[in-house]
Design goal:
By secondary structure, the chain is mainly alpha-helical. It is built from six helices and no strands.
Length: 149
């Protein structure tokens, strides 16, 4: 992607999300998702990588929904600063929780990666569990936003 394409994308993001809490909620989710894929790239075992990448891709599929939730929240309760609008505070809390839980998922994958390097048997259940929590958080944010509308 070229310089001007990135600049155009940044302007579109700023226009849609503003510079306040909704932009930060979106960016926090993106950073956590990036971390998941950074950790994933360090998995040397092909079978384990193939299993975990499926879960990571499911989480990546949530990004358009998170972005839309943030855009809708910005339209409903605009934010250009650090103050969380009261009417959508629970939506913000659910989105923030989703990003935090996504970061925790990256940590679980990192621990699994270390176990695999040490020759220990790995279990995909903790990753599946953490991924489900993130999905539930995003679903909760969508439900809460629908209730506010």
């Amino acid at each position: 992607m070229g310089f001007f394409s990135r600049l155009r994308d940044q302007r579109a993001i700023s226009r849609d999300l503003g510079q306040g809490v909704w932009r930060r909620a979106h960016d926090r989710f993106v950073r956590s998702l990036d971390r998941v894929f950074q950790v994933l790239e360090g998995i040397e075992d092909n079978d384990l990588y193939n299993e975990v990448v499926v879960r990571a891709n499911e989480l990546a599929d949530l990004l358009p929904q998170v972005r839309q939730l943030c855009i809708d929240s910005q339209k409903l309760t605009p934010s250009e600063d650090e103050h969380i609008p009261q009417a959508t505070s629970q939506v913000h809390r659910a989105l923030t929780k989703s990003a935090n839980d996504l970061a925790t998922t990256a940590q679980v994958i990192a621990m699994m990666r270390m176990q695999a390097k040490d020759g220990e048997e790995t279990n995909l259940k903790p990753v599946e569990h953490r991924a489900q929590i993130v999905k539930d958080d995003v679903s909760q944010a969508a439900k809460l936003l629908a209730d506010v509308k």
